[in-house]
């Protein structure tokens, strides 16, 4: 089945190329093409998930020399963590296409960009050569830039440019790190780097970690590197927001898991001469992101900005789980990554539906979705409760495990950060309920406002975008193993590799 | 597996009802009743099973099963059937079914009655899962689902402002406590690697006192939120904005008692701590007195009952503070029946009089004889009058205080009992005595029948006190004469005083209010706690959130834009004195950045060409970096 993984990554590229060749006189063809391509890609990804053996490590590998002179390989494979993210990427890409059915401005280019974006996202999660990883990583930037700048809102130019330059700024440091790591170890292979990197002297690891931190943290985004996110979200079209929050942010945390932890463990736990270890730094930044994001979300008047800042808060839980370096914590981090993709994707879909009908995202103009459009209202409310971490839905699983892992790490022997930061993070759960319920109270409940009064309920196509997300949210929330049986063995293998670090 | 069906039946009813259209759901509400009846039957079977296996080892589990939901066997759903859960199953299913039958009458004109039944079903499933859980994680998950249902039912009439606000307040206040629950779970997992009762509880004896105290207090904090204990009690009176039968089930009989159940289950941790027991005792007595005093000045019949619930829950915490789980659970059981009876009675009264204000009521005993009779049973039980159930359960709590030598707390508890008898008599006189509501009519049979059932249980269950203790594996005792006399005198004193004041007009209450203006205002203002929370937490948080949002936009994002602008200036300078070696690439990059900075400053939409130049510029910048790095790369390759 190894060939199939290549197909999953590159099928959308073929789709994107085909979309540019479509005849101009049939503008409706592009969306059907995109739906078929991303749909097929989702099916193939599902086949991989079904064939995946949770007891084994990396699977479906392809490893051939790419630039032999520089020891660069085309090496792709998936473990339990990456196949989870790959499935999320494939699912949300398909849903993003369905959610874009009404795009009429240059549809061929638009859907080509969506498919190109999927290539980059899928690629990041399967690449095991650092240069290949970097290529996919940067590939993601370009279509997302165009999606925002050409199909975005009134401030799209500013937002897209900010998104592009800010993340480029981060990834430039990552590139420096990649090259430097190669200079020290002679390899770009992420599997081999795990042992080669961790043997490096402490101060080298520390500076390398700084470089990767800047690359990944901008993407997550970790406070205070987050201000590109609200602008990008507000201006992006619905599909762009869904993929931005649902998948792109996870590339950052995935980078920490795949690179930061196994390659540079000493930098995390021990630091270097005069340089503090990174673990407490990450924990503190995570706690700040959680509380700060929640508080700022509470003050927003624009629905999309509210959801965008809530992402800063939720991604803080991912960072907390990763920084805990415990099985529970990293299981939780990946669970939040997956769940946040589903739930925030769903929330952006709902905001998009409301915007498409009411042409506003201002919270004060919206109220009473539930009586007027019960399906939209119900899905909105359900997504909100999933987002605030209600047990029985996916959001709870990861946030709970991240807190458990954080507490374990903070109270273990030789812990290097205080449990107070875990308490601060736990308060974030309360603050999440505050901004979420406040939003529900004003937007979903009450009597329909004038804007809402003219709305019609979800169409069948829209329902089709919502149902899979809702279903998965409930399945994962009730039976955690449906997700964690993939993630947990990979996390254990990862931490075992860390050894005594 | 029959046991699993007890919570799963109502859960299935919810799953069936929830996705339906409103009209279909309204006509299918019977699904909910059928499921609840099924749960009741199965609960009776389960109880019989535990009953026949009683004796011997005391509280041992009759049935235990575990379904892991995550790798590692610490996370999962387990079912634990022991005497405690068997009793709780009966309470929840009996009150649950009574409320559902009653609601057929009470809610029959509501256009969203189907949704109401769906949420009641989900609630019942969650509450049944709470009492069957064999581990703290499962209990916590079900506990939060209950919180959701409570939120949905308080805000059931969400097009009105009041219920909307009350529902948020309830959810957030209880979630304050739940933060403690979450941390308690994290702490017990860090200590034992498990959440299971049969792992954590025995292990707690060996913990350092600090660890036990931490876990116990965190759990207590969670219980205080759910069970509306001081200082987290503020949400419960507001929660009366929901439909009255829902108040009876959730905010009187079951969910609010879940905190008591939690502490009772976790009692070994509290005992290991010691300090935590004292804290529990203190919280309990403060709450009992606080609720009792506040009930004195309410005019809304449901609010009187709500403060009464707070006070009675405080009584249960007092019992827990003496480490007497039997007394606490027994009072939980009797209270569940008589308080839900009182709430259902209040519902009938509200239907009949179209008001909740007791000042607009009076003389209902003539128009509503059945309601008067069953309500009186409930009121006397609440007041603690022999031979009704409240007398016995209150007596056990008082006895446990004496046994522990907590004489001051004993005096406080007696005072709370006096207040209880007083306010419930005040309520009774205002509603049933005198004259007033002449157009009232007796409630429908479908509402009266469940009340009669609850009244019958309240009348007889007191005599089960010794059997109850024995069933839970403790030595039960009948009330001691001296103590029984003291508590009876207290109850009669309270009743007599209230009768004298409100029926015989022994005191001019208006004049009294004027003379005691300050304390009276303090009570009317609920000890200023809502105002305090508003001023100390809600407003400052709102202000802080706005300030942080401004900070985010002004300072953090301002810095980002500032850096961009600076960079633009710098590259302009460097272009003017252009001595660059890699001139082409860097110039391209600089151009891009100049453009970028301009855009960042002007924040306006622009021309398509400039986009393209920008993106090209960005890519050139990237290329420039690679070119800078390339010599390094080549050197490395040579070295390799």
3D architecture notes:
The complex is a heterodimer of chains A (501) and B (640). In chain A, 75% of the residues lie in helices and 3% in strands. Chain A has helices at residues 2-21, 29-51, 80-99, 107-126, 130-151, 156-185, 190-198, 202-219, 228-235, 238-263, 265-269, 278-298, 303-324, 327-358, 369-372, 374-387, 394-411, 420-444, 450-453, 460-478, 481-498; strands at 59-67, 72-78. With 501 residues, chain A is mainly α. Chain A has a domain at 277-501. Chain A contains 21 helices and two strands. The longest helix of chain A is centred in the C-terminal third of the chain and has 32 residues, at 327-358. Chain A has a two-stranded antiparallel sheet with strand order 1-2. Chain B has helices at residues 2-17, 22-27, 30-52, 83-106, 113-132, 136-154, 161-192, 197-204, 209-226, 235-238, 244-253, 258-265, 267-273, 275-295, 301-321, 325-353, 364-367, 369-383, 389-403, 407-432, 445-460, 465-471, 481-503, 509-515, 517-524, 529-576, 583-602, 608-639; strands at residues 63-68, 76-81. Chain B is 76% helix and 2% strand. In chain B, a hairpin with a 7-residue loop joins strand 1 and strand 2. Chain B contains 28 helices and two strands. By secondary structure, chain B is mostly helical. Mean pLDDT of chain B is 86; it is low at 577-586 and 601-612. In chain B, helix 7 (161-192) packs antiparallel against helix 9 (209-226), helix 14 (275-295) runs parallel beside helix 20 (407-432) and helix 18 packs antiparallel against helix 20. In chain B, strands 1-2 form a two-stranded antiparallel ribbon. The longest helix of chain B is centred in the last third of the chain and has 48 residues, at 529-576. Chains A and B meet through helix 5, helix 6, helix 12, helix 14 and helix 17 of A and helix 6, helix 7, helix 26, helix 27 and helix 28 of B.
């Amino acid at each position: 089945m190894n060939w199939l993984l290549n197909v999953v990554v590159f099928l959308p590229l073929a789709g994107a190329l085909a979309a540019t060749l479509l005849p101009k006189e049939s503008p409706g063809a592009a969306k059907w093409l995109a739906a078929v391509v991303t749909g097929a890609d989702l099916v193939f990804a599902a086949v991989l998930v079904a064939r995946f053996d949770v007891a084994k490590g990396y699977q479906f590998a392809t490893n051939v020399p790419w630039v032999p002179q520089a020891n660069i390989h085309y090496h792709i494979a998936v473990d339990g963590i990456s196949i989870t993210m790959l499935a999320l990427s494939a699912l949300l890409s398909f849903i993003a296409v369905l959610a874009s059915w009404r795009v009429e401005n240059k549809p061929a280019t638009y859907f080509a960009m969506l498919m190109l974006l999927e290539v980059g996202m899928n690629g990041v999660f399967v690449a095991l050569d650092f240069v290949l990883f970097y290529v996919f990583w940067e590939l993601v930037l370009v279509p997302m830039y165009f999606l925002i700048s050409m199909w975005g809102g009134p401030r799209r130019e500013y937002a897209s440019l900010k998104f592009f330059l800010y993340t480029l700024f981060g990834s430039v440091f990552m590139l420096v790190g990649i090259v430097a790591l190669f200079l020290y170890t002679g390899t770009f292979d992420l599997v081999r780097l795990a042992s080669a990197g961790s043997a490096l002297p402490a101060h080298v690891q520390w500076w390398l970690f700084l470089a990767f931190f800047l690359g990944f943290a901008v993407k997550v985004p970790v406070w205070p590197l987050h201000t590109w996110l609200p602008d990008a979200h507000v201006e992006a079209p619905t599909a762009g927001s869904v993929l931005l929050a649902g998948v792109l942010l996870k590339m950052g945390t995935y980078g920490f898991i795949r690179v930061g932890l196994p390659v540079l463990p000493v930098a995390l736990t021990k630091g270097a001469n005069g340089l503090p270890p990174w673990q407490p730094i990450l924990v503190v930044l995570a706690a700040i992101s959680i509380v700060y994001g929640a508080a700022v979300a509470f003050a927003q008047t624009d629905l999309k900005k509210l959801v965008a800042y809530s992402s800063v808060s939720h991604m803080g839980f991912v960072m907390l789980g990763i920084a805990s370096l415990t099985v529970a914590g990293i299981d939780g981090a990946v669970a939040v990554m997956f769940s946040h993709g589903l739930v925030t994707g769903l929330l952006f879909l709902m905001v998009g539906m409301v915007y498409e009908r009411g042409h506003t995202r201002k919270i004060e103009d919206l109220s009473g979705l539930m009586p007027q459009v019960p399906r939209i209202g119900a899905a909105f409310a359900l997504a909100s409760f999933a987002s605030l971490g209600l047990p029985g839905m996916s959001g709870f699983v990861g946030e709970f495990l991240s807190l458990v892992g954080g507490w374990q790490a903070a109270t273990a022997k030789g812990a290097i950060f205080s449990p107070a930061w875990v308490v601060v993070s736990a308060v974030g759960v309360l603050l999440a309920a505050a901004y979420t319920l406040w939003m529900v109270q004003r937007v979903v409940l009450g009597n329909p406002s004038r804007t809402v009064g003219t709305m019609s309920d979800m169409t069948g196509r829209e329902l089709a975008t919502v149902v899979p997300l809702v279903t998965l949210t409930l399945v994962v929330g009730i039976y955690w193993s449906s997700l964690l049986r993939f993630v947990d063995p990979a996390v254990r293998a990862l931490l075992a590799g860390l050894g005594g670090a | 597996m029959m046991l699993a069906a007890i919570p799963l039946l109502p859960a299935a009813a919810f799953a069936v009802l929830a996705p339906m259209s409103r009209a279909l759901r309204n006509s299918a509400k019977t699904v909910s009743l059928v499921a609840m009846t099924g749960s009741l039957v199965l609960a009776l079977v389960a109880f019989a099973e535990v009953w026949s296996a009683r004796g011997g080892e005391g509280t041992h589990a009759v049935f235990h099963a575990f379904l892991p939901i995550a790798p590692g066997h610490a996370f999962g759903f387990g079912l634990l059937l022991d005497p405690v859960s068997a009793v709780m199953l009966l309470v929840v299913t009996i009150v649950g079914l009574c409320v559902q039958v009653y609601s057929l009458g009470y809610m029959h004109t509501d256009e969203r009655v189907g949704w109401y039944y769906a949420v009641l079903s989900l609630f019942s499933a969650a509450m049944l899962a709470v009492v069957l859980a064999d581990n703290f994680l499962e209990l916590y998950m079900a506990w939060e689902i209950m919180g959701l249902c409570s939120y949905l039912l308080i805000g059931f009439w969400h097009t009105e402002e009041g219920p909307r606000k009350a529902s948020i307040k309830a959810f957030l206040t209880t979630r304050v406590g739940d933060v403690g629950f979450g941390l308690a779970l994290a702490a017990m997992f860090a200590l034992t690697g498990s959440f299971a009762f049969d792992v954590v509880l025995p292990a707690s004896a060996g913990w350092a006192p600090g660890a036990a105290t931490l876990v116990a207090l965190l759990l207590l904090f969670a219980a205080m939120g759910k069970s509306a204990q001081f200082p987290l009690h503020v949400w419960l009176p507001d929660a009366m904005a929901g439909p009255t039968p829902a108040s009876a089930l959730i905010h009187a009989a079951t969910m609010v008692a879940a905190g008591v159940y939690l502490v009772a289950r976790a009692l070994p941790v509290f005992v290991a701590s010691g300090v935590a027991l004292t804290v529990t005792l203190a919280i309990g007595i403060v709450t009992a007195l606080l609720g009792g005093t506040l009930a004195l000045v309410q005019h809304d019949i449901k609010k009187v009952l709500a403060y009464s619930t707070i006070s009675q829950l405080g009584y249960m915490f007092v019992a827990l503070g003496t480490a007497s789980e039997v007394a606490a659970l027994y009072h939980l059981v009797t209270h569940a029946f008589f308080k839900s009876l009182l709430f259902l009675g209040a519902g009938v009264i509200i239907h009949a009089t179209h008001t909740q204000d007791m000042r607009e009521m009076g003389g209902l005993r003539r128009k509503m004889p059945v309601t008067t009779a069953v309500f009186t049973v409930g009121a006397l039980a609440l007041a603690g009058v022999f031979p009704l159930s409240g007398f016995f359960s209150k007596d056990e709590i008082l006895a446990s205080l004496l046994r522990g030598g907590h004489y001051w707390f004993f005096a406080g508890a007696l005072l709370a009992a006096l207040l209880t008898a007083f306010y419930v008599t005040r309520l009774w006189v205002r509603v049933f005595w005198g004259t007033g509501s002449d157009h009232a009519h007796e409630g429908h049979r479908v509402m009266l029948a469940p009340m009669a059932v609850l009244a019958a249980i309240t009348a007889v269950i007191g005599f089960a006190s010794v059997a109850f203790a024995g069933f839970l594996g403790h030595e039960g005792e009948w009330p001691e004469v001296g103590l029984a006399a003291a508590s009876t005198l207290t109850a009669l004193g309270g009743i007599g005083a209230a009768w004298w004041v409100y029926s015989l007009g022994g005191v001019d209450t208006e004049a009294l209010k004027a003379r005691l203006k300050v304390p009276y205002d303090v009570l009317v203002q609920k000890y200023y706690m809502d105002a305090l929370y508003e001023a100390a937490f809600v407003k400052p948080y709102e202000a802080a959130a706005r300030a942080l949002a401004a900070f985010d936009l002004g300072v953090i994002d301002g810095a980002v834009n500032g850096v961009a602008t600076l960079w633009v200036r710098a590259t302009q300078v460097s272009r003017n004195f252009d001595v660059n070696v890699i001139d082409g690439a860097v110039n391209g990059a600089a151009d891009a950045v100049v453009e970028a900075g301009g855009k960042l400053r002007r924040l306006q939409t622009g021309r398509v060409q400039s986009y393209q130049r920008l993106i090209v510029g960005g890519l050139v910048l990237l290329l420039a970096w690679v070119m800078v790095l390339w010599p390094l790369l080549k050197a490395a390759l040579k070295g390799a």
